[in-house]
């Protein structure tokens, strides 16, 4: 469904991605992991059109993405959440999600200004869909609360509902459990499995190994801009190069733990 081929990227003299190849199959949950500064966010920024790589190709559902503006890429069916939560805190949960649905509403300025039936019908549909998505995220009972009043875990779930409102096929999640407590993490794992079961494809960046290993079908490990391992969680967990990248080169030290903890 999403294919990155030979992506390379540099910022001035800093070469941050070298020949990166990733293939995310439809219906899968794919994890992109690696130490801080490895280049993971840069990969997301390339997929979503915020950055243009210096070499390589990105294709999604048969469309080449390079050179397309971010809103065109959203329209093709790719949605994203961010490492730092970006919600409209002074708006209700429902309003936050309806904002995500606007790209599907096709009405002209006159209908907007004069409140014509076509506009009212589309808005009613968007609100209905938003309520459904809040239900998926177990937030429908708070639809009319302000986003500012939510707990951290709930804010992350609201972001997901808002991303889903753009009706994507592929969801990019940037550190979805960052800052969550154990209970919130377990709950989110469950929600993400439910989202996949509804037919969505998911690509996530995440540092929490328990979460990644428990959820992903396949994982790619980036280190200094290169893919050093690629495969199923078990193979990644026991990969020497991955263990070294995460634990440093002092694995002969007393007390060093073999394997990536999950
Ligand atoms: N716009 C930019 N200009 C210059 N350097 C950049 C830019 N964006 C990222 N970098 C550099 O590229 C490298 C990769 O950054 P990136 O944010 O992709 O890493 P990451 O794997 O997402 O890290 P983290 O886990 O800390 O978010 C880093 O060295 C970073 O400083």
Q: What is the number of independent domains?
A: 2
Q: Regarding CATH, which class of the largest domain? A: Alpha Beta
SSE succession: EEEHEEHEHHHHEHEHEEHH
**Small molecules in complex:** adenosine-5'-triphosphate
Residue share in helix = 25-40%
Q: Which geometry do the CA atoms define?
A: globular
Q: Which stretches are poorly predicted, pLDDT < 50 over at least 5 residues?
A: 249-259
Largest sheet: 6 strands, mixed
Structural class: alpha/beta
**Count of extended strands:** 10
CATH architecture group name of the largest domain: 3-Layer(aba) Sandwich
- The order of strands across the largest sheet is 6-7-8-3-9-10
Annotated CATH homologous superfamily of the largest domain: P-loop containing nucleotide triphosphate hydrolases
Assembly state here? single chain
- Average of the residue pLDDT scores: 87
Q: Determine the number of helices (DSSP H or I, runs of at least 4 residues).
A: 10
In whole angstroms, how far apart are the ends?
Answer: 28 Å
Radius of gyration: 20 Å
The portion of residues forming beta strands comes to 15-25%
CATH topology of the largest domain: Rossmann fold
